[in-house]
Amino acid sequence: MKTRMFALLAYAAFAMAAFGDQANAIVRLLNSRASGSPKGYADAAAEIAADAAAGKPLQGFVLAIVSREPDAPPAARLDDATRERYLKASRERITKLAHRTNNSLAWYLLSIDSGDTNLLQRAALGGNVQALNAWGSMLVNNVVATSSSTNEIARVLGEALEFFKQAAGQGDANGLYNLGMCHARGLGTPRDDEKAFGCFRSAAEKGHPDAINNIGWFFREGRIVGKDLELSTKWFKKSADYRNAYGEYNYGLALHRGEGIKRDDAEAAKYFKRAADGGCVEAINSYGLALLRGEGVEQDELEAVKTFERAAGIGFPPAMENLAHCYEKGKGVKADDRKALLWRIRSKAARGDRAAQAWLLQNDKERRR
Description:
It contains 20 helices and no strands.
């Protein structure tokens, strides 16, 4: 399934009576950031920035937090002085609300301002839907990244699942998506494609770009539903319209293959490039292939090698194999059988081949070259 793992909610939407009607644009800003919609993110950021400049303190507070992100839209980029001014304008008010009423949404806002995971946990335990998603996502990523025992991994994944269930139970699109990923991957629960599809479909109906992309995957693969390439391509295009990197990649793939749509390599290359710029490693590799073969773009073997190196640096085995091919055939680089072999071994190691991993460890100089 070509999709991101979870909606990693560093920030998410909120709407509380204490803030009245100010939350509408903020909801769009932070939800689009979490759900993989760069277009919605950029559009909402422009609106929030205008409100912040007009003196609305809450919008300024959220904009200041978003501005810390490396991929913040242009409208959300602030200089240090403006960022601190915006934060100070609302920080005291939100802090008082949290302490006086134990408001879980206020605790959540303070957690994303300070990066304090204790506050995030407090907000999640208080039932704040955004904190539920953020805390559950953090639990999953932390346990996956550690060498915990099997029992501990199962316990933590089960705990994360319950947080996602609570968020999904409130009808939250990100909660539904995250719960769907748990069912799809068998995280904290037995793998169940039917339940995963149901969660993704509910999230997609709420406009969640990652979930929309996943629905396309189900129709392309004929999983749970009848295989329908024309319908799958329509779902991918809908996700791509949000500028979702995985939707763009899958739509580009459909264009390249002529699946459910007339083959068009030029359009495919355009979508591969967009998705690559959005960080989709599969798309980076596919755009490299387009450059190598001159499919839909002017052939440029040197640039193809650079593109494969970018994807290989992220740890993508097919890109490593493509680099091996380039070194073997002298495409974009000087032919070098030793480097070709080295990239093939790296590819096998990245796929989990223990013999290849052992060889790289024993030949550290080769591994670092």
